[in-house]
Amino acid sequence: xxxxxxxxxxxxxxxxxxxxxxxxxxxxxxxxxxxxxxxxxxxxxxxxxxxxxxxxxxxxxxxxxxxxxxxx
Length: 72
Known about the structure:
Blueprint: E1 8-10, E2 17-19, E3 23-26, E4 29-34, H1 35-52, H2 55-60
Antiparallel strand pairs: 1-2, 3-4
């Protein structure tokens, strides 16, 4: 949603009025969500995917890590 002055846009997720450079661009259009909200959403999506794949529990459990010994 571009405001009247064509230099700012309102983010659909957070509702803030920001300049157009704070929004990502896909091919020929400007996203409706600001970069901060988009990145936050992607982080949450990746975390949920890791939990679904059981990777997050693997990395939290100390007993699952391999103890490596290197030659000196």
